[in-house]
Amino acid sequence: MDNLKSSADKGTDASKQFISKTFEHTKLKAFQVTALSLSMIVKLFIIGSLAVLGFVFLAFFTAIALGEYLNNVALGYLIVGLFFLILSLLFYLFRKYFDKKVITMVSKIFFD
Fold first, then answer.
1. Number of domains making up the chain
2. Where does the pLDDT of residue 47 fall: very low under 50, low under 70, confident under 90, or very high at 90 and above?
């Protein structure tokens, strides 16, 4: 009877240790995913902000240059605006492709 009780106690201790280690591993994995996600968001914000600022200046330059070339500044702005609308439409049409890419990238981070 003591042998059975000893085996049960060892099983209980092993289960408690397993649950404790699993919880610690889950906390570490959550920290890793959170840190990587936050790092990616910060980098995306900084690089994206600088890229958007560059594109704004490039768009103004292009619109003015096209306007001077066509002898109509308004027409230059119209062409650049239409270009951005067409580009936006293309991104909208291919949004599911971008969703799949993002999900694939996040799943590699999370399940790695």
1. 1
2. very high
